[in-house]
Design goal:
The chain has 300 residues and is α/β, with parallel strands linked by helices. It is built from ten helices and 14 strands. It is 39% helix and 19% strand. The structure holds NADP nicotinamide-adenine-dinucleotide phosphate. The site of NADP nicotinamide-adenine-dinucleotide phosphate has 29 residues, from helix 1, strand 2, helix 4 and strand 5.
Length: 300
């Protein structure tokens, strides 16, 4: 099976390569010049429709995983035009680039399509009501994918961290080298998700879909368990053994940033369990493994 990954040089893209290369013939697309082991890499901006079309008609993928996006939430707020170009127009061009081909399209989306005002865990049926430009652009991309006529799965995930990108875990580890007191918001909750776990789950989804091609729709996909950013930071500091560092809770209103964030990003993964027969493991276990794999702590 041939799998084409957009955004293959990004945080999720790199882990997708690591996890999928055993089972599939991999092709990847990204803007920067790079070599990635295990994947036939094409340097291509999705906004270059001609080139995108040519690559897709040459590869003829069985599965496309669309992980490319502009993910810097505050930058999106400050530059909406760029956010819509990279998240919406690029998705439209990818769909145009597919032409008459109908591979399985796995579109990676986000908890940011919701307002964050839900009381309990957020289900896929929750009203779409983003609170920032990034969320709107991700939702519009979903709408485009939804109107495409081929088989598709929209996977909404949350709070990603992994080896190959800027993320909260790395930020907390870096800041705690220089500072003894960290201020972290405690009134936004969600589920941190390890990109390697997410990549393994996407592999399970593809294999299951191969056996039942009628499965389609929107699914939540995050590590289980919930926390808030302050507790998450506490756990990172604790695992790293930095006992001298204190994490102080603050309110969102006291931490000014260009883009608003949803307060409740806890995704209910029960539809995934019902349809695909699995759920992702607890975020604490995943974080522990990440810290061991990155040699931040020693394994047992
Ligand atoms: N990060 C999170 O916390 C989070 C949470 C929920 C959902 N998501 C979603 O998960 C997916 C993966 O996120 P991530 O954190 O792995 O992203 P990332 O590390 O920022 O990587 C995104 C990649 O997209 C590529 N890209 C952007 N615009 C492109 C274009 N016009 N043409 C070709 N490639 C383009 C970039 O390629 P170059 O490097 O070559 O420029 C970049 O490597 C995204 O869809 C994101 O919206 C992320």
């Amino acid at each position: 099976m041939k799998v084409l990954i957009t955004g293959v040089g990004g945080m999720l893209g790199r882990d997708l390569v690591e996890v999928l290369k055993e089972n599939f013939q991999l092709y990847g697309l990204g803007r920067k010049k790079r070599k990635i082991l295990g994947v036939h890499y094409f340097q291509c901006d999705l906004l270059d429709l001609n080139k995108t079309e040519k690559i897709i008609s040459k590869v003829k993928p069985d599965v496309v995983i669309h992980a490319a996006a502009k993910t810097q939430v505050d930058e999106c707020e400050l530059n909406p035009k760029e956010a819509y170009r990279e998240n919406v127009l690029a998705t439209l061009y990818l769909l145009k680039g597919l032409g008459n081909q109908k591979p399985l399209l796995i579109h990676i989306s986000s908890d940011y399509v919701y307002s964050g005002n839900a009381k309990g865990k957020v289900r896929e049926s929750e009203e779409i009501n983003p609170v920032n430009v990034y969320g709107y652009s991700k939702w519009l991309a979903e709408e485009l994918v939804g109107s495409w006529l081929g088989p598709k799965l929209i996977l909404r995930t949350s709070w990603l961290y992994g080896r190959n990108g800027h993320n909260f875990v790395k930020a907390i580890l870096n800041i705690s080298r220089a500072k003894k007191v960290l201020k972290v918001v405690s009134d936004q909750k969600g589920s941190p998700t390890y990109t390697k776990d997410l990549a393994q789950s996407i592999k399970k989804i593809i294999l299951k879909w191969k056996k039942n091609k009628s499965i389609s729709g929107v699914f939540h996909l995050s590590n289980s368990g919930v926390t808030h950013w302050k507790k998450y930071a506490d756990q990172i500091i604790k695992l790293a053994g930095r006992k001298h560092v204190k994490v102080v809770p603050i309110k969102t209103k006291d931490y000014s940033r260009p883009a608003m964030r949803p307060k409740n990003s806890c995704l209910d993964n029960s539809k995934l369990k019902r349809v695909f027969g699995f759920q992702m493991r607890d975020w604490n276990l995943a974080l522990n493994d990440y810290m061991v794999e990155e040699k931040i702590i020693k394994g047992k």
